[in-house]
Amino acid sequence: MEEADTRQDGHLTEALAQASILVVDDEPGMRNFLVKTLAPHCRTVVEAANTDEAAAQLSARHFDIMLLDNVMPGRKGLDWLAEQNTKGGVTDVIMVTAYADLETAIAAMRAGASDFLLKPFRSNQLLNALRRCQQTAMLRRENRLLRHELDQFDLGRRQRNRLLGTSPEISAIRDTLDRVKDVDTPLLITGPSGSGKEVAARHLHAASARARHPFVPINCATIPSDMIEVELYGHAAGIHPGATTAREGLLVSAQGGTVFIDEVAELDAPAQSALLRVLEDGLVRPVGTERSLQLDARFILATSKSLEQEVAEGRFRADLFFRIDVLNIQMPPLAHRGTDVLELAEMYLNDLSQRLGLTRLEIDPPVRAAMLRHDWPGNIRELRNFIERSLIFGHFPLETLGDKSASAAPIEPLDQVERRQILRALEAVGGNRTEAARRLGVSRKTIDRKCAAWGL
Questions:
Q1: C or N: which end of the chain has fewer Cβ atoms within 10 Å?
Q2: CA–CA distance from 407 to each of 162, 221, 363, 370 (Å)?
Q3: CB–CB of 21/63 below 8 Å?
Q4: How many Å apart are CA 263 and CA 193, to the nearest integer?
Q5: CA–CA gap between residue 107 and residue 113 (Å, rounded)
Q6: Nearest-angstrom CA–CA distance, 132 and 15
Q7: Which of 6, 51, 3, 42 is nearest to 24 (CA)?
Q8: Helix (H) or strand (E) holding 151
């Protein structure tokens, strides 16, 4: 029992070490005691002598917990806290007072305080109050994220945080992700639907220093346009009927971690403008509030559309595009990843056979050849569906892979096929070599080299 308690205390101490604390008290001696007590245990401890200084500190940065004295010259901490909560954006608060009466305790909770600490108190009482407050905040956040994950969960599909494959294309992407894993610059991942953009984002998050913090996936195509700001930024209490309490937005839920915004091209103009402000200054303002919150999160954005074309046609803000196009990773279609299809198929066979309780199938040479020959227009999503269908019926339905009439077509030299496909792609995009390379799943240098060899 003592060993279990020791492990729990160690976990709480480690969590507290990441916390930033604001101490608000008019007495210099009490502020000095609180700062000296908390400084060895917390990441940051900032002090304020009155509510005006506290408001300035809250506007300047994010705090996990605020210790607020109730009786101060000018106005009570309770009155100020109640006023701040109407504006929104106040952090978790522990009310500190020397007067222990039930009416004050009830008023503190109604004003929005998370806990109540009675003077005089010992150091261990103070630290325990902070740990309780932090644990409660973490549980609320985890509950919100779990509900969001359940809403986003696609039956039969497990999210993964490891980018599988040994093809040169995927190996190069893994190297790039490793290089930028701890850079806070926004990352843009492009590629066809089902090519593994979210897996790449999860791979980056798991390898980064933010891995112990939340990974929050947001699919813009599944959120109604009139709800996107509320979902992303949260809202104050009472902004619409039924909103009896304030709600934390998905962006704030990712504090310290990674936000993955999928299908960013689906955002409407107001949402694009709001997102640009967040990326520029790191501030999030919940709907219906007057105070912005400082956000510490890495942004990874993804789209299956050409943002250059979206900008040219006026559907996507040029300034937002240039802000998120600093680091750009292009996910290749599955057909361009060589034998990766077989490695992914083996992974899905192991995973789905266990989850569905079905006998695992073995990939024999004819099946291998058919899978390598198929173009996989639906990419990894199509492969997963093919494996699940095969397990359900107890055999691989090879007749669904490709057109049988293709076997009767004449066999062309490989260089002719390559030249025809590249030229068709260039014609389709009006000669834009960068866009042609993106759609073909190759580098711009490859297109330039081929065109130079053909005298173009």
A1: N
A2: 36, 39, 22, 12
A3: yes
A4: 10
A5: 9
A6: 11
A7: 51
A8: helix 123-152
The answer to whether the CB of 334 falls within 8 A of the CB of 165 is no
Phi, psi of 284 (to 5 degrees): -120, 125
Quickly list DSSP for 351-392.
HHHHHHT-PPP---HHHHHHHHH---TTHHHHHHHHHHHHHH
| Cβ proximity of 123 and 33 under 8 Å | no
Q: Give the C-alpha separation, 255 to 215, whole Å.
A: 9
Q: How many CB atoms lie within 10 A of CB 293?
A: 25
pLDDT in tens, the chain (456 residues): 344 444 444 444 666 788 888 999 988 889 899 999 999 988 889 998 888 888 888 888 888 888 888 888 777 778 888 777 776 666 888 888 877 677 777 777 777 787 888 888 888 888 888 888 888 877 777 777 776 666 554 443 444 678 888 888 899 999 999 999 999 999 999 999 999 999 999 999 999 999 989 999 999 888 888 788 888 888 777 666 666 666 778 888 888 999 999 999 999 898 899 899 999 988 888 877 777 788 889 999 999 999 999 999 999 999 999 999 999 999 999 988 888 999 999 999 998 888 888 999 999 988 988 888 888 999 999 999 999 999 999 999 988 886 544 454 566 677 777 887 888 888 888 888 898 888 888 888 888 888 888 777
Please name the residue that has the structure tokens 């993804």. 302
pTM recorded for the entire structure: 0.63
Cis peptide before 332 (omega within 30 of 0): no
